[in-house]
Specification:
By secondary structure, this protein is of the alpha+beta class. It contains ten helices and eight strands. 23% of the residues are buried.
Length: 293
């Protein structure tokens, strides 16, 4: 997608000859991105609502109530003061106010995750499950459309598979990220190698695992496809994997948003809303007008 000569170039480009406009994100990619944003927010918040109904994780096929891998509860501290407790293995942490015990209507209330983080805010497992399953289907359908479009047009290969020169310079890309120096000129036309590898892991590893682990928690699907629970070593393991991958996706989103802010918020947002993105011309360097990657 080329193009510095597009007739729809914003007026800003005419005032700033040091910048080149490129069309970076096709409509399908942009729609898939924003639908994913909505789906993931609803899935995360409704998932925390579901977790609150039984705020503990186990490993294997059965729940080992006396020895959970993770539990978010509450107890009484010194003087009988209630406090939130997060237990990971044999270690416990006071997480009052955030996990285990938080304010609801001004009153300290025992909840694994606070009301502001769940959908709906009040404890309502049935409604949380309905939101979760509805948006899980929307998320899967959107993902399949994205994959079909990406494979059919070559966008997936160009966006996710690093080029040979990028692999060879992966050390340089790591240094650029650590020092918050981002690519400019010709190199800014394409995703850098760390972006491509991260997106590759998210799209082709984490998200499929997330969906499969979610399916493995369904008694009906387990009966029809018993290999699903065997794949994860039991339904409780599938639930734990689902929770762990959800947290990895949250970590990915936090880092993704931070890099969007640091590398140019308005330019990145405009690119993902309109498709148009600007890169800075480097004096003396040649910038091709070929396809953006």
């Amino acid at each position: 997608m080329s193009v510095s000569s597009a007739p729809a170039q914003p007026a800003e480009d005419q005032r700033d000859s040091a910048r080149l406009w490129i069309f970076r994100h096709p409509l399908v990619i942009r729609l898939a991105h924003w639908i994913n944003v909505v789906c993931l927010v609803v899935l995360l918040m409704s998932g925390l609502q579901i977790f609150n109904a039984h705020p503990a994780l186990y490993w294997g096929a059965a729940s080992t109530f006396d020895a959970p891998a993770l539990a978010i509860t509450s107890d009484e501290g010194a003087g009988g003061t209630p406090r939130g407790i997060t237990q990971i293995g044999t270690h416990t942490f006071d997480t009052t106010g955030w996990l285990g015990l938080s304010a609801v209507g001004g009153e300290p209330t025992e909840r694994a995750f606070p009301a502001w983080a769940t959908l709906p805010a009040g404890q309502d497992l049935a409604t949380g499950r309905r939101w979760h399953f509805l948006f899980a289907w929307a998320f899967v359908i959107n993902g399949l459309i994205y994959l079909a479009y990406g494979i059919g047009t070559g966008q997936l290969r160009r966006r996710l598979i690093p080029d040979g020169d990028q692999i060879r310079d992966i050390g340089g890309s790591i240094r650029e990220h650590l020092t918050l120096h981002f690519p400019e000129g010709e190199e800014a036309r394409r995703y850098n190698v760390l972006q491509k590898l991260t997106y590759l892991v998210v799209v082709l590893v984490l998200l499929p695992i997330m969906v499969l682990a979610g399916l493995a928690m369904s008694p009906g699907l387990d009966a029809a496809f018993p290999f699903l629970t065997e794949l994860f070593g039991g339904r409780q393991s599938a639930r734990s994997v689902h929770f762990i991958v959800a947290n990895l996706l949250v970590l990915f989103v936090i880092i993704h948003v931070l890099l969007v802010l640091l590398s140019g918020f308005w330019n990145n947002m405009r690119g993902m809303i309109t498709g148009w993105f600007t890169i800075r011309r480097i004096p003396g360097a040649t910038i091709r007008t070929g396809e953006s990657r």
